[in-house]
Write a structure and sequence with these properties.
With about 250 residues, the protein is α/β, with parallel strands linked by helices. It has a single domain, classed as Rossmann fold, CATH 3.40.50. The protein has 9 helices and 7 strands; from the N terminus they run E-H-E-H-E-H-E-H-E-H-H-E-H-H-H-E. It has helices at about 15-25, 40-50, 65-80, 105-130, 145, 150-170, 190-195, 195-205, 215-225, and strands at about 5-10, 30-35, 55-60, 85-90, 135-140, 175-185, 235-240. Strands 3-2-1-4-5-6-7 form a 7-stranded parallel beta sheet, with helices on both faces. Helix 4 links the parallel strand 4 and strand 5. The longest helix has 29 residues, at about 105-130. It is globular, with a radius of gyration of 17 Å. The structure holds NADP nicotinamide-adenine-dinucleotide phosphate (NAP). NADP nicotinamide-adenine-dinucleotide phosphate binds next to helix 1, strand 2, helix 4 and helix 7.
Length: about 250
């Protein structure tokens, strides 16, 4: 896909799904702003992207901070002149049963997954509205559609991301900014690595395609939403889960 001279911001791109999304966009010729709280993983991803011949900016930032997210947008425009694509990928889990869930576990997950998505979207929207063009892709989760035991905070945050996606799509449509979400299922990353073997086995039983998803599976869906082939699609959530929740 030709993304030459396009500019993308990918949050949580030091590792996991975000890193792969950034690599894939860069393979298409896109210049990238990498955003993460971890400086070490950020600089490693930056090195791996630079060899693809595109420009890379790294911004150590916390998506829960309004000041940080405004800095991400401002520094990107200062370096590259515009923002074409935002991928809201930064996200965490803090699993617990509702009865045992601590206030901090609820607040932190909502702050990063949902408020972080709002903060980044708001910060880039100023620039995209001016350009009358843009693509925003939010990484939700199938848990935000079906819920899950021990993940009430995560489910609520991701359901919020899906509803936020629809509202943003309606608000920004007159300015030619498409906003869509991706709901991955069980993807092989550090986030799922920590799950107990019996839980992993149970999840595998529910996947008709009989394999875990890969970071590439999610990145491929992002590529569709930033391509011209999806010009007439906005406000949608694409489930990437091997058929788990059809
Ligand atoms: P991951 O491997 O834990 O990567 C998440 C990245 O986000 C990490 O680099 C993390 O930094 C960064 N991050 C965390 N808090 C941040 C903050 N406040 N500001 C900026 N960056 C922050 O997770 P993943 O599996 O790739 O997940 C990526 C996205 O996909 C998340 O939104 C997740 O909910 C969603 N998702 C994942 C799965 C799955 O099965 N893996 C399924 C459905 C949806 P640190 O390294 O410092 O923590």
């Amino acid at each position: 896909m030709n993304l030459k001279d396009k500019v993308a911001i990918v949050t949580g791109s030091g590792r996991g799904i975000g890193r792969e999304i950034a690599l894939k966009l860069a393979s298409g010729g896109c210049n990238i702003t990498l955003v993460d709280v971890d400086e070490n993983t950020l600089s490693q991803t930056a090195k791996d992207i630079e060899v693809k011949g595109v420009k890379v900016l790294t911004v150590k930032a916390d998506v829960t901070s309004v000041v940080d997210t405004e800095r991400i947008a401002d520094e990107t425009v200062k370096s590259f002149g515009k923002i074409d694509i935002l991928v809201n990928n930064a996200g965490i889990t803090r699993d617990n049963l509702i009865m045992r869930m601590k206030e901090d576990e609820w607040d932190r997950v909502l702050a990063i997954n949902l408020k972080g998505t709002f903060n980044c979207t708001k910060a880039v929207s100023r620039y995209m509205m001016k350009e009358r063009s843009g693509r925003i892709v939010n990484i939700a989760s199938v848990i935000g559609i079906g819920g899950n035991v021990g993940q009430a905070n995560y489910a609520a945050s991701k359901a919020g991301v899906i509803a936020f996606t629809k509202s943003a799509a309606k608000e920004f449509a007159p300015r030619n900014i498409n906003v869509n979400a991706i709901a991955p299922g069980f993807i092989q990353t550090a986030m799922t690595e920590v799950l107990k073997d019996d839980i992993k086995a149970k999840m595998m039983e529910r996947i008709p395609l009989q394999r875990l998803g890969t970071v590439q599976d999610v990145a491929n869906a992002v590529m569709f939403f930033v391509s011209e082939e999806s010009n007439y699609i906005t406000g949608q959530t694409l489930v990437v889960d091997g058929g788990m929740i059809m």
